[in-house]
Design a protein that fits this description.
It is built from four helices and no strands. By secondary structure, the chain is an all-alpha fold.
Length: 95
Amino acid sequence: MAKVEKSRRRIGRPPAGAREGEKVKDYPQLSIRVPGEVKARLQALSVVKARPQWRIITDAIDCYLRERPVDERKQIGEMVKRAPSRRPSRAAGKR
């Protein structure tokens, strides 16, 4: 009798980064202070939409940028291209 192999699923959640194969835990962290009602709205929106807070903020920034004039978007795009990569090496983060 032939043995049928099942494909094994990995334990835990799949990577949930913005792009294929990225992991949120590898993203740089951002800390901001906002009024309590803004934080409460963000948490509520996250629950209602079943989306992580980082995705809601990312979508909001993208939406805001779409509303900017073309010259501002170009200027911002150039600044982003010139920004140094903030991705720390795995060895540097484990000290």
